[in-house]
Amino acid sequence: MAKQYDILCRLLMLGDSGVGKTCMLRRFTESEFDPSHISTIGVDFKMKTLEIDGVKVRVQIWDTAGQERYQTITKQYYRRAQGIVFVYDITSEPSFQHIAKWASDVDEYAPDKVQRILIGNKSDEELMRQVTKDQGNKLAESFGMEFFETSASTSSNISESFTRLTELVLQAHKRDVDNLLGALDDYLEKAALEDEKGSRYADDNTHKACAC
Ligand SMILES: Nc1nc2c(ncn2[C@@H]2O[C@H](COP(=O)(O)OP(=O)(O)OP(=O)(O)O)[C@@H](O)[C@H]2O)c(=O)[nH]1
Fold first, then answer.
1. Are strands 43-52 and 83-89 parallel, antiparallel or unpaired?
2. Which of 14, 26, 31, 37 to mutate to test the pocket of ligand 1 (most atoms within 8 A of CB)?
3. CB under 8 Å to 179, separation ≥6 — which residues?
4. Three-class SS of residue 112?
5. Which is the closest atom of ligand 1 to the Cα of 154?
């Protein structure tokens, strides 16, 4: 049977309420954009399979509620994340200012190896822009993160940013990935040999049956 995927990768989306986390996720996994804002309650997740350097990666993306009242619940998910997407809205200066708070929470609760990227969403709303691209770049640089401006509405940079974060996670866990793939290859090779042996045995039996 063909392998469905080789590796599971867990990403988490953080940022203020209304910055567009759910819309970005729907755009990435379902190629859809719904302009209504229904606040996420607690957490939700969606999956998508990517192929990176010949490795099939099942990406599980957790979408968290930006509202303050859900923070106790959402923080419980930080520990299991391998990659974090920090999102602000380029038309909202406060959402940009709050990234420092989200980042310090991650430092406190997430594993050391966690990979992070910064995203300024709603890049289609140029006339409403409050945060310049340069400000975004500088903030990302100060945290040692890569930076993207995206639009869930037009789909600009959505796939690129999620794929890049997945690549960073794979690079950070390269040794584990190689070990896992090695073990998987050994297993598949062994299974193929067993199959071959089995069919030879069946052939032998067939011949015997014919000879009688
Ligand atoms: N113009 C524009 N609007 C967007 C974009 N992404 C999201 N929106 C709008 O922003 C609003 C909030 O989007 P959501 O995805 O629900 O925001 P969220 O960050 O998930 O919010 P919480 O679940 O409350 O944390 C919705 O009305 C969307 O239509 C975008 O790229 N461009």
1. unpaired
2. 37
3. none
4. coil
5. 31
What was the pLDDT predicted at 209? Answer: 33
Domain ranges across the chain: 7-173
CA of 88 to the centre of ligand 1 (A): 10
Query: What percent of the chain is predicted at pLDDT more than 90?
Result: 66
Q: Give per-residue pLDDT as tens, 10-35.
A: 999 999 999 999 999 999 999 999 88
**What is the C-alpha to C-alpha distance for residues 206 and 191, in angstroms, rounded to an integer?**
22
| Atom of ligand 1 at shortest range from CA of 66 | 25
- Which runs of E-coded beta strand occur in the chain? 7-14, 43-52, 55-64, 83-89, 115-121, 146-149
Distance from residue 17's CA to the centre of ligand 1 (Å): 8
pTM of the model: 0.85
Name residues contacting ligand 1 (CB within 6 A): 17-23, 35-37, 39-40, 65-67, 121-122, 124-125, 151-153
Multiple choice CATH, 7-173, 2.60.40.10, 3.40.50.920, 3.40.50.300, 3.90.180.10: 3.40.50.300
Looking at residue 198, its pLDDT comes to 59
In the predicted model, what is the mean pLDDT of the chain? 88
21 Cα: distance to centroid of ligand 1 (angstroms): 6
Q: Quick one: 143 exposed, middle or buried, by C-beta within 10 A (0-12, 13-18, 19+)? A: middle
CA 57 to centroid of ligand 1, rounded, Å: 27
